[in-house]
Design goal:
Helices cover 52% and strands 12% of the residues. It is an alpha/beta fold. The protein folds into 2 domains: 73 residues, lambda repressor-like DNA-binding domains (434 Repressor (Amino-terminal Domain)); 189 residues, Endonuclease, Chain A, CATH 3.30.870.
């Protein structure tokens, strides 16, 4: 039997429910007892294999201490999403900002392939690099920077999780991203050192370098990630654009992007050559 196909909104709701439960320090068994169901049903709700009924969702949100707009839109989504796919109300407060939404989806994913010509991905950023990025334009809002920074640092947990296999992460970076001088030479040296260690010590991470002068490819000017989830959740593209994140789960578009990412892997330096390149750049920064 063909598995029922979900969509990105359902995966996001599932990921958000899991985050809320974990932040409330509630076990799956406790949540299951609250609903009078098995812990496996809670697991199904948290990966999108089943959809919560509004009454079930409200009981969980009460127990997790969730209030306000995020709660209201989650409940509205549960009430309107049990039939055919329709315009989703789950699009403002309850689909969190890019920082939280990306973290939730990475926590659910089995694997991710990332490309950027400008930035190190958040999940691989060291604290000093992330702080330099997040502080830009928020100089008068240090509390906001601190919240975003803590969340960004938490994202790396998906790479080392032990309750299920860690996220498999394949990162392709343009040489330009590695020479962006974000935070200055000291910060960039620390960041590149972290990428070197990831390549040398973590079997689930690959960092490839696309050198300057490598020629044209499909993702020039874009930052893109392809996430794969446990079935029946769809593979999903995330495209980072000015001020917002675009999500795409139509199979044809996802397949086309996956093909071009494979071509980009072949165009970039291999793992060993990429590590050598990073080590040379790290040495350059150490003498500046």
């Amino acid at each position: 039997m063909t598995a029922r196909r979900l969509n990105t909104e359902h995966i996001q709701v599932a990921a958000t429910l899991r985050r809320m439960r974990e932040h409330a320090k509630v076990s799956r068994e406790e949540a299951a007892s609250l609903l009078g169901c098995t812990s496996s049903k809670i697991g199904d709700l948290e990966v999108g294999r089943s959809k919560p009924k509004p009454a079930e969702l409200e009981r969980l949100l009460d127990h997790y201490g969730i209030t306000g707009a995020e709660r209201d839109e989650l409940v509205q989504f549960a009430r309107t999403s049990r039939g055919r796919r329709a315009p989703s109300p789950y699009s403002t407060a309850a689909i969190p900002g890019n920082h939280i939404r990306t973290a939730d989806l990475e926590a659910q994913a089995l694997s991710s392939v990332f490309y950027s010509g400008e930035l190190i991905p958040g999940i691989l950023q060291v604290r000093s690099y992330a702080e330099a990025l997040l502080s830009w334009g928020r100089e008068s809002r240090p509390d906001e920077v601190a919240r975003f920074l803590d969340l960004r640092m938490e994202r790396a947990g998906a790479l080392t999780r032990t309750h299920r296999p860690p996220l498999r992460y394949w990162c392709i970076l343009s040489e330009t991203a590695l020479r962006s001088n974000i935070g200055g030479a000291k910060v960039m040296r620390e960041q590149i050192g972290h990428l070197i260690q990831a390549n040398l010590t973590m079997e689930n991470i690959v960092v490839q370098v696309l050198p300057q002068g490598s020629g044209a490819h499909a993702f020039l000017g874009l930052t893109i990630a392809l996430l794969r989830f446990p079935p029946p959740a769809p593979d999903t593209l995330m495209l980072d654009s000015y001020g917002r994140m675009i999500f795409e789960d139509r199979p044809g578009e996802v397949a086309r992007a996956a093909h071009h990412l494979e071509l980009l892997k072949a165009q970039a330096l291999g793992l060993d050559s990429s590590t050598d390149f990073l080590q040379r750049l790290h040495q350059e920064l150490s003498v500046e």
